[in-house]
Amino acid sequence: MQRGFLSEIFASFQGEGLFAGQRHLFVRLSGCNLRCAYCDTPDSLERESGYTLHLSAGEKRGRNPLTPGELTRLVAPWFEGGGALDAIAVTGGEPLMQADFLGQWLRDLRPAVPVLLETNGMLPEALAEVLEVIDIVSMDLKLPSNTREPQFWRQHEDFLRLARSRRAYVKMLVDRATASEEFERGAALVGAINRAIPVFVQPIVDPSGALATDEELLTRFHAQARRHLDDVRVMPQLHKLIGVR
Fold it and tell me: Residue 18: which H helix or E strand, with range?
């Protein structure tokens, strides 16, 4: 039986993308194949021996790895009594690094709400393994100038061609270090697959909590993206603005 590594589970308002403002149950798996310079969840980058449940009565800790059945029992309390949850957001780290575990868990769980996958969009083969149990794909398109990682254009293109069979949208994170030519190449990549895919231009938050962009920069990026796409939205991280997890 597959076993997986969990970082945390909590309920909160979705802060990014197409469903911002909805109430989601976040299941954060641990382990990531990238080390983006702006990562805001560094505690989930490595697989650790323990995980945390953020319950209304306080925090509860458990030990990794766990089986799909054990994870199902962990999320059950959030759905008892018909709680007002709009989706399960599976995030990380990079959840597709544990595609076998994730697929088995979701096939066993058969949730009554949609499953939203938050991913760095680099592992198309892993996405193919779980796509049948995913309803929504939130894909980051990584730009080397601000991630300080290599370029992943081919992986992103292959990934998005698969993801478009679901309800998919793309986030492109930007700051003052973002190269204009990279941003336009990313927007063109999405537009060549489907101009109607929503793209969110998301300002990066610096270590002080301030947005690492300005109006002029965001206006320029928006105009670049609109040359290739029909639905482009500038949106900061809502959860940080309202002060929730």
Answer: none
Helix (H, G, I), strand (E, B) or coil at 127: helix
Domain residue ranges in the chain: 6-242
What is the C-alpha separation between 213 and 217, in angstroms, rounded? 6
What average pLDDT does the structure give for the chain?
Answer: 96
**Measured between alpha carbons, how far is 152 from 244 in angstroms, rounded to an integer?**
32
Q: Tell me, which fold does domain 6-242 have in CATH?
A: TIM Barrel (3.20.20)
Encode pLDDT of 140-154 as tens digits: 999 999 999 999 999
The predicted pLDDT at position 167 comes to 98
Q: What is the pLDDT of residue 47?
A: 96
Instruction: Say if CB 102 and CB 29 are below 8 A apart.
Output: yes
User: Omega of the bond prior to 93 within 30 degrees of 0, cis?
Assistant: yes
Of 155, 140, 160, which Cα lies nearest the Cα of 204? 140
Residue entry with tokens 């081919």 = 154
Percent of the chain having pLDDT more than 90? 91
Q: In what order do the strands lie in the sheet with 232-234?
A: 58-63, 50-55, 6-13, 23-29, 87-91, 115-119, 136-140, 167-174, 199-203, 232-234
* pLDDT reported for residue 210: 85
C-alpha atoms less than 13 angstroms from C-alpha of 186 in its C-beta half-sphere: 29
Instruction: Indicate the helix (H) or strand (E) that contains 11.
Output: strand 6-13
Specify the pLDDT at position 80. Answer: 84
